[in-house]
Design goal:
Layout (H helix, E strand, L loop, with lengths): L2 E9 L2 E8 L8 E9 L2 H9 L10 E2 L3 E9 L11 E4 L2 E2 L5 H4 L10 E2 L7 E4 L1 H6 L1 E3 L6 H5 L1 H14 L14 H5 L1
Antiparallel strand pairs: 1-2, 1-4, 3-5, 3-9, 5-6, 6-10, 7-8
């Protein structure tokens, strides 16, 4: 299909921009042209430490917060068309393992991961297309859509903490999560 530029992590602080093949899509998958990609604390930890929870395999495609345009739709994909503006979460649970059965999806033992948004194109795996793909509304820019994942983390944390309108809170940190608070 051709070549594209992509950032690959080869080890601790060893990030390289390389020419790689543009991914081919299979059944249930989509190919997206990345229009915006952001850097989060997880990206920095992976770069500085070379790992996060045993989920890194070298060379590791880098980046996971992004937004873009669908350029190819695999066989069997429903409701997604070429040209749609989308963003996807970087993982989705299996919904079958013991942790998922308890509703603890963040502890899924068989999670499907999506890395590689520091590239011209990203292939979205079928389980993420099915469970964690989001259409970007026309009034939201690609850059704004790319930070919806950290915004979701902020909102989830506030809900879990029981924070209500008018409460006084302390926010420590000036990274993306702290700023979004």
């Amino acid at each position: 299909m051709g070549k594209m530029k992509a950032a690959l992590l080869y080890g601790v602080k060893d990030l390289r921009l390389e020419d790689v093949d543009i991914p081919e899509v299979g059944p249930g998958e989509i190919l997206v042209r990345v229009r915006a990609a952001t850097t989060c604390g997880t990206d920095l930890k992976i770069y500085k430490r070379g790992y996060v929870g045993g989920i890194i395999k070298y060379p590791q495609p880098f980046g996971h917060e992004w937004a873009g345009d669908v350029v190819k739709v695999g066989e069997g994909v429903q409701g997604i068309e070429e040209g749609m503006r989308i963003r996807a979460g970087n993982s989705t649970p299996c919904y079958k393992c013991p942790m998922c059965q308890k509703g603890l999806y963040n502890l899924c033992e068989n999670r499907t991961w999506l890395w590689g948004s520091y590239a011209e194109y990203v292939k979205v795996p079928s389980p993420i297309v099915k469970h964690n793909l989001h259409i970007i509304p026309p009034n939201l820019s690609y850059a704004e859509a790319a930070i919806t994942e950290p915004l979701a983390c902020v909102l989830h944390g506030a809900l879990k903490a029981g924070i209500k309108l008018g409460d006084t809170v302390v926010v420590i940190g000036a990274g993306p999560i702290g700023i979004l608070h």
